[in-house]
Specification:
502 residues; mainly alpha; Gyrase A, domain 2; 3 domains; two-stranded antiparallel sheet; 6% strand; transferase
Length: 502
């Protein structure tokens, strides 16, 4: 089967299991997940959905998130959208997925516990503050593919420059890699207006003021502005203010004049406020974020790395990790890379090490071992949801010991930052081995890659040892390390049993 047919088949199998086209309200995707807004969540057949070969896991949040993995999700999503549209118009009907039957009992029990924990997490995270953070994340997540692409090109260009290869090509690669970052404020403004219910192009127009070279002629508080001052934070604030002005105008301007008055007033008021206030304030905040990250890791790198690496997954469970996305983007915009992401990536290394320990400890439980084997390689590539929700979190103690692995891996990378070797990433989104092409630092790619790779090894080993030694009580081993009873189909017939005794 060709890749195109394979992705079409995956989309066709998913659609009926989420309630069909009429149940799909919205379709989007991020780095690894197909995100579906559903009208009735109860119509989703979770167990059959998880049984699909291409599906690595199902995460329930504000949307139904189906984990397909990097690369695959970007190819399945348009096929899924086409099927939804076709079914709605009656041009085609997706065929139902075959019934694969029930999986191993023990693995199903863990999956059920994982689903219950996700539901509890969703209920806890539905606070106004966390919902606001989720909206902020929705602004930046669509930018991740461009950040990754440009980041990899920037890394390749830096390697060529250091090696003095292809001097005639490197300026062109620098332009390709830097063009998006030079205008990222415009995209942030566009997405902000879209997320908060305004006209996206007006948000982009207001945010473009920040990167316009002519702002250097504007004087505020006795100082001239600099193009790009305030960066993505200024763009976010400017576009949000534009949405507020636009909504105010829509309520008061007569319909006959709306098309002329509302865009003009929105851009004028929000634009002047951006020039004479927001750019300066956001620039100060951006500077302090960069200085704060530098001080944090230069003075307490090992301790900070220990806390960040160990607490990142609990932050994810609480929904607070979304507050880090604009911080990452601000650091990338200012320094060219974020020093926080490689440390946070160590949390995934701890999960991988813990999963291997679970595999070794539960030698007789073929059900859980099968789940670990299927989720382990995605875990190496930074897709941690199948391991978290299918293995460590439902088991309880292995999740804690996995966080220990992340803490020690983060401390290792943080220590090198403290000693003067910055280890950063030029983009956000990837983790694990997938982060290697995006690594950057202040001492060249060789040392940066070596420190990050050694940090992963520390996370793997510590997560494994902590889980192997402390991840299971005797009662847990008695409960889980038992071979599942054979089904009626697997039991030999009486004649066969008699023959076995002879």
């Amino acid at each position: 089967m060709s890749d195109e047919n394979k992705h079409h088949a995956t989309a066709a199998a998913i659609l009926p299991l989420v309630g069909g086209a009429e149940n799909v309200a919205s379709v989007a995707h991020c780095m690894t997940r197909l995100r579906l807004g559903l009208r009735d969540r109860s119509l989703v057949r979770d167990e059959q959905l998880k049984a699909l070969p291409a599906v690595m896991g199902v995460v329930e949040d504000d949307t139904c998130q189906i984990v397909l993995g990097p690369g695959t999700v970007a190819r399945v999503t348009p096929e899924f959208e086409a099927l939804v549209e076709a079914e709605r118009t009656g041009a085609a009907t997706a065929s139902p997925a075959p019934d694969r039957g029930d999986g191993p009992v023990t693995a199903e029990a863990l999956a059920a516990q994982g689903a219950a924990l996700r539901a509890q997490r969703k209920a806890r995270n539905a606070t106004p503050f966390k919902l606001f953070l989720r909206r902020i994340a929705n602004i930046f997540v669509p930018l991740i593919p461009a950040l990754i692409g440009c980041g990899i090109i920037a890394g390749l260009n830096g390697l060529l420059v250091n090696l003095h290869w292809l001097p005639g090509v490197t300026p062109a690669l620098a332009a390709v890699a830097s063009g998006f970052m030079a205008l990222i404020a415009v995209f942030v403004g566009h997405n902000t207006a879209k997320e908060f219910g305004g006209t996206p192009v007006l948000g982009g127009a207001i945010a473009s003021i920040i990167v316009y070279a002519g702002v250097a002629d504007v004087e505020v508080f006795g100082r001239h502005l600099s193009p790009g001052q305030g960066g993505v934070l200024g763009a976010l604030g400017a576009a949000w203010l534009g949405v507020c002005v636009e909504k105010w105008c829509r309520r008061r301007v007569p319909e006959a004049l709306d098309v002329l008055v509302t865009p003009t007033v929105t851009v004028l008021v929000a634009g002047l406020a951006t020039l004479f206030g927001l750019m300066f304030l956001a620039g100060e905040v951006s500077t302090r974020i960069g200085d704060g990250a530098d001080r944090l890791l230069s003075h307490g790198g090992a301790g900070a790395g220990f806390l960040l690496g160990g607490l990142f997954l609990p932050l994810v469970m609480l929904g607070l990790h979304q507050a880090l996305i604009p911080i990452h983007t601000t650091l990338i915009e200012g320094a060219g890379f974020t020093v926080l992401l490689p440390i946070l990536a160590m949390a995934g290394a701890g999960q991988v090490g813990a999963a291997i320990a679970v595999y070794c400890r539960l030698r007789h439980n073929t059900s859980i071992r099968t789940t670990v084997k299927s989720a382990l390689w995605p875990g190496f590539l930074g897709v941690g949801e199948p391991l978290i929700y299918g293995v460590s979190l439902p088991l309880g103690r292995p999740f804690v010991t996995a966080c220990t692995g992340g803490a020690f891996g983060g401390a290792f990378v943080g220590l090198f930052n403290q000693l003067g070797t910055d280890v950063g990433s030029t983009a956000i989104g990837p983790s694990g081995w997938a982060l290697f092409p995006l690594l950057d630092g202040n001492h060249g790619p060789g040392r940066t890659v070596a420190v990050y790779a050694a940090g992963l090894v520390v996370g793997y080993v510590t997560g494994f040892l902590a889980t192997y030694c402390f991840g299971f009580t005797k009662a847990m081993l008695t409960e889980f390390d038992t071979a599942p009873a054979p089904s009626a189909e697997d039991r030999p017939a009486p004649a066969e049993r008699a023959a076995e005794k002879i």
